[in-house]
Every structure is written in structure tokens, then in C-alpha cells.
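Ticket closed. Logging final result for Molybdopterin molybdenumtransferase.
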Amino acid sequence: MVQLDNDCFAFGGPMMAVEPALALLAGRVGPVTATETVPLTAALGRVLAADLVAPFNVPPHDNAAVDGYAVFFDDLAADTPTLLPVTARVAAGQWLGRPAVRGEVVRIFTGAPMPTGMDTVFMQEDCRSDGATVTLPAGIRRGVNRRLAGEDVREGSVVLAAGRRLRPEDIALAASLGHAVLEVRCRLRVAVFSTGDELRQPGQALEPGAVYDANRFALIALLTRLGCAVTDLGILPDRFETIRDALAEAAGSHDALITSGGMSTGEEDHVKPAVEANGRLDFWRLAIKPGRPVALGRVRDAVFIGLPGNPVAVVVTFLRIARPILLRLMGAAGETPRPIPVRAVFAHKKKPGRREFLRGSLTRGTDGALEATKYPRDGAGVLSSLVESEGLIELPEELARVEPGMTVDFLPFKEFL
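Final structure:
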């Protein structure tokens, strides 16, 4: 069960900076504990629940790295070609069946086990053979073209650590060690809903004053990419009782609840009091643009994450605030996005004391250096800015102005997804 501490922050106090907020979350949110066993074909994107330890060496024996001829290095002449008899042939999946004898050569193929005692392999294109004998050129080094047992994976080593979100290459490695199933954490159960009397479901008629709900679909897509089991609770009207009851009911069967909209302090913003009626808020204002009204709390036993109502702010705050919370709930480790330092080719004035995220893309300057260009429109409702950008330009709290030529951090969207 997810647990958070009991103390809250005063809502009228100063806005919290991003890093202290994330540090707070790290101490207050723990992973769900339920696990299940799934076949390899269903393990992609799941979080490994226990360390995967190699039961044997990979490769399990010394083997040839090329098609050619296996020899004893000490049988070779130092400065002249060596003529030796070819006495056996070993292909991948076969075994010589006896120790090798000094003075013989074994025809060998890529992946085949090295005959016991032999330590070096000549590439076939470097040799001349009539089938019965082979002429081996001088100058080869001892041990060339031989893969050692355990060169890839050593028996008893941790090859995949608990908390890893499994990628195709991880699944391949597990298969190479003979694992048909893996123990993973159960999918995080997340309920999503939007609030607002102005919102309509795509496909419905759009009367004056109404807009289609894009936020919910963005969140469902982001959560699905993250590997969560998502429940779509639709659009809730701006009614305190309706929101309060929907939160309470969803909390009984989900690990996390995510809303968008209704987190400010206007007369029609009911999410904050609805959460407090069922649980508590730990914070609800961050020093961040876009997306100041971001909330974390608890509704009964479920973690609550309240995001802003503007579409760009929803995506930005999900990536930088909600995503780390959800990954921690999932038990996933080591997934902090890595910013790229790039050169700014734009000017931008910023309010000190808050973290700001601009949408932008990368180009190459005349000197080959990466340069960040800013999307020309900054509004938190300009959804096309996300579609037409490659990532986020992250500006730290202390910065007041960006000038062309300055170094800024660029976070590609692919780092999050």
C-alpha cells in the first residue's frame, strides 16, 4: 500500500521550488508492493521486482569468434608460416569430444566450443588449405579470435537489478540465461479524470463556449507509455460534491489519481477542497512555469496528483513532476532524464525564483555545435507548440534572462518517453 507522511504545508505560504518538491516526494512516496510472474513476451516495459542473477557463465565455454582454424599458439613458428594437419571439424552446437593434441589443427566455425587446450583461432581467409593440411601465416597474437567463457556474463553476477524497467535488450539477456518468466511489479493502477463544465468529449457537438478535452487523452497516452493500468473516469462537472465522491470511490481501487484543472482558488475550482474532504494535500503550488497549481496529496490510500488545466502545462508538469512520483510508486529506478547542454540562439526574459520550461528544437550551428531554438509562442494553451517542438528548454530558478550564445539545458521528449 502507498504511504505518505501526515504533515502538510500551509497553502498561503510561498511557492515551493521544483527540486525541494521532488526531494519531498522521494521521502514520502514508496512503491506498491504487489508482484506477479509474467512470461518474457509480456515483460516489456514492466518493472523487475527482484534481482536477476546469472545461473551460469555466458558464453558457457570458450568459443570461436570467427570461421577459421583453432590451434595451439605454441605450435606456431615465430617468423615463418606454419604447416599443420587438419584433423577435425567443429561447428556451432558441436563438441570435439576429446582434448586437442599438440601439433594438430581443428577446422572451427563461429560460436563453436574451443577444443580443450587450444587458445587461438586464425580467420579462414588468412590461411591456405588443401583440406588435409593448412598453412598458417606468421605474426598472429596468442588468444586472437577466441571468446572466453563468462566474457559476456559471469555466473552469480546480478545482470538485471530490481527496479529496472525492462527493455527489449533486457528481455533478450534474460532469455539467454534460460528464464522463461520474470517476477515484475504489478502495473500501477491510475485513475484519470478532467474537470470543467466547458469540456466536451471529442466526437460530441461543440456549442459556443465549450472546448474539447485534450488533457485527459494526453494523460492516458503518457501513462500508457509509462506502463500503467489506466482507468478513464471521463469529465467531471464543476461540482464539489461530484468531485469529492468520484475521488473517494476511485481511491478504493487505484494506487494513484490524476486530475487536470480545478486546482486554483477560484469559485469554480473545487478539486482542492474535494481532496481535503477525503484526505489531505502536501503541497499545491510550485514555483514553475507553465504549471504553478500542481498538487500532491492523498485521497484515502491513493496518491493524488493534481495538474493544471492548460494543455501545455499538463504535459510539462506530468513529465517533470508527476512522472517521478509515478516511477517511484512503480518501484522503477534510475530513470532521471539527462539534459543536453546546448547553445541558445534566442533571447528570453524570465522571472527569477521559478523554474521555467520553454518548448524548443535543436539545430546545428555553422561550427557544428548544437543550438536550441525557442518555439515562437509561449502560451500554456498552445498545444501545437508541443507537436512542433523536440523537447523542453529548462531554465533554472536563479536565471533572469537568456541571451544568444548562453548555454542552456535541453531535455528531449524522448528522454521521458
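The chain has four domains: 18-34+187-330, 38-58+151-185, 63-147, 340-416. No further action required.
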